Amino acid sequence: MKPTNQKAWLLVLPVLGLVALSAVIPLMTVVNYSVQDTFGNNQFFWAGTAWYEQVLHSERFWSALARSLSFSAIILAIEIPLGVFIALNMPRKGVGVVVTLVLIALPLLIPWNVVGTIWQVFGRVDIGLLGATLNAAGVDYNYVQDPIDAWATLILMDVWHWTSLVALLAYAGLVSIPDAYYQAARIDGASQWSVFRYIQLPRLGRVLTIAVLLRFMDSFMIYTEPFVVTGGGPGNSTTFLSIDLVQMAVGQFDLGPAAAWSIIYFLIILTLSWIFYAVMTRDESK
Amino acid sequence: MATIAFQGLRHSYATGAAPQASFALSHVPIAFEDGGRFALLGSSGCGKTTLLNIISGLLRPSEGRVLFDGADVTDRPTEARNIAQVFQFPVVYEGLTVAENLAFPLRNRGVGREDARRRVAEILDMTGLAHMADRRARSLAPDEKQLVSLGRGLVRADVAAILFDEPLTVIDPQQKWRLRSRLKALHAQTGRTMIYVTHDQTEALTFADRVMVMHDGEVVQAGSPSDLFDSPEHTFVGYFIGSPGMNVLPVDVDGRNARIGGQSFELDGDPPGDLSGRLEIGVRPEHVQVGTTGLAIEVQRVEDLGRVRIVRARLEGHDLAAVLHEGEPLPADPRVTFAHGRAHLYRDSRRVALVGAGR
User: Fold this and answer.
1) Which residues of B touch A184 (CB under 8 A)?
2) Separation between Cα atoms, residue A143 and residue A230, nearest integer Å
3) Is A61 among the domain residues?
4) Does A180 contact B152 at a Cβ distance shorter than 8 Å?
5) Which of A214, B34, B55, B237 is deepest in the core (most CB within 10 A)?
6) Which tens digit of pLDDT belongs to each residue from A214-233?
7) What is the pLDDT of residues B146-164, one digit of tens each?
8) Which of B307, B131, B18 is nearest to B140 (CA)?
């Protein structure tokens, strides 16, 4: 047998080094915290799976998880169809293209905490355009006191902020469909709905997979905007996994449970993303 | 089923008042008779796809009418025209199976489930796709996708003509041959009019029994493959069809006396009276005889193609190709004559006479 040259592995080392610094080492620190207990002074005691058990048995974790999942499910159900709908109605040629693209991309350029601040002010009952107008119109709206109003505000904010991303991705997918497909559809007498169902939607599959994955991960990890708008309230009605995690780690300094919580959180995102990906690409292997 | 004809058809992609020069299509004095096998042949940008899209209604001509069996269909949309079209890049509905793809045009037209199933089964047999009826269309090879695309045209009982827009472009050579013979067989079986657009002379000449050669938006000649080869009506036809293409040499004619540069020769036949304009003589390389008499040439190189050799030479500064058959020698001081009855005289690129040989 010909001896294999193993020197190629050396070329991987720089990347390995970078990834180690940026991801593996911080992650291992968290893993380290999650299986030990400390009382300061840099003294650590082995805790085993105690923190994991504590987190998994806590009512607090499960309700935060349920809130996070619901939030992601709701915004996905709104943003994906809405984004595709917007993309279908965007102009394909002419000056309108540039104007539309810039307008659509605008929300994506705003820093997250600024988005939060905008909506925090926008929704205020006393001075906010939205809050004050609604109340003047007789609608009893107050996101500081009413959990449903708080959720509605957060969802509206997320839809406003992120539907653009879905629309841009879908638009990119749509313009890549060759004209011949539309011509063939005309020859085959296809209705507008058939064109969407059998030409556009299948061709959008890939970009929509990316859109769903990005929007799921981002919304499941959302922190800044709800923190700025509602701070997790009223009560803990908008306390998502991330907000609770920060309270636990930074507010209460419970490093062990917070680390275990982080690891579980990470594994959930990883698993669900993998499931989404596997389900959405299952057709392609056939 | 219909004969497709045109009336004063012209098309320009420019909007507004367009000058003559911008017409993508300007002169189409042809008709596609019912049940024929036609090819539109020409180089890129000659207007052949434009003509095809006008027939199918994907494009509305800027001037003139399109007639199906004498009825004006110019304003009828594609869906109402009973035309099927197969595109350069295979178009299939990727998420559907082969059978569902074939049923698609029927379903859109409200054909009953039972009827549709029977038609689809027929077409599956006809196209040889029966064994992959339940496969997803996206997993097919390009030539199979083109067959599905063609099948969607055949499945409709009312289709007047099937148009092919360079359907073999993205197909591998081996599959090309397979698909082409399948097309001819399907034509024989269904008797549907087929119009095939291509820039490849071999594809056109082997597929069609009537070939329309297009050049700069005009149909310069329509005829059988042998017509096009033996009597090209336009220098472009002579040049475009045949390999190598026809030799076209500028010539001065005075009575029966013809002169190329400093050398003169005698014509077999009488030229027409009116000899104004740019005169050229056209002779196919197959009809240029290399020997020791006639017009002196300078040989540049000889290409050996096995059975024949192609002599590339200069005659009074103009390129000339001649075919030497196996065993024919190339003399040291070569001269050429044109075979009897095989030289054509062109005035402003159009054929005016058969003027025969020279010595």
Assistant:
1) 85, 87, 91, 149, 152
2) 8
3) no
4) no
5) B237
6) 999 889 888 888 888 887 77
7) 888 888 888 887 788 888 8
8) B131
Q: Note whether B18 and B138 are same-domain residues.
A: yes
Please give, rounded to a whole number of angstroms, the shortest distance from the CA of A282 to a CA of chain B: 12
Please list the residues that pair with B335 across neighbouring strands: B291, B296
Same domain flag for B90 and B197:
yes
Is A276 within 8 Å of chain B by CB? no
Containing A55, the helix (H) or strand (E) segment is helix A50-56
Q: Is A176 on the interface with B (CB under 8 A)?
A: no
In this predicted complex, what is the ipTM?
A: 0.75
Domain count, chain B: 2
Model pTM score: 0.74
DSSP-derived letter for residue A179 is: H
Range of the domain at B80: 4-232
Nearest residue of A to residue B156, measured between CA atoms = A188
Over the stretch A225-262, which tens digit does the pLDDT of each residue have? Answer: 888 888 777 878 888 878 878 887 777 777 778 888 88
Say yes or no: B235 contacts chain A, CB-CB below 8 A.
no
pLDDT tens for A129-177 read 888 888 888 888 888 888 888 888 899 999 999 999 999 999 999 998 8
**Which strand (E) or helix (H) includes residue B192?**
none
Q: Is residue A116 part of a domain?
A: yes
Residue pair A270/A213 in contact by the 8 Å Cβ criterion: no
Interface test with A, best of B15, B52, B78 (most A CBs within 10 A): B78
Do A187 and B108 make contact, defined as CB atoms within 8 angstroms? Answer: no
B44 and B185, same structural domain?
A: yes
pLDDT given at position B359: 44
Q: Per-residue confidence at A72, pLDDT binned at 50, 70, 90?
A: very high
Is residue A251 included in any domain, yes or no? yes
The answer to whether residue B164 neighbours chain A at the CB level (below 8 Å) is no
The C-alpha atoms of residue A24 and residue A261 are separated, in whole angstroms, by: 18
Q: What is the mean pLDDT of the segment spanning B261-282?
A: 81
Overall number of domains in chain A: 1
Within-domain flag for B291: yes
Distance from CA of A185 to the nearest CA of B (A): 9
Set of chain B residues whose Cβ sits within 8 Å of the Cβ of A189: 79, 105, 108-109
The CA-based dihedral angle spanning residues A143, A148, A153, A157, taken in that order and rounded to the nearest 10 degrees:
150
* Domain membership flag for residue B237: no
Q: Does A198 touch chain B (CB under 8 A)?
A: yes
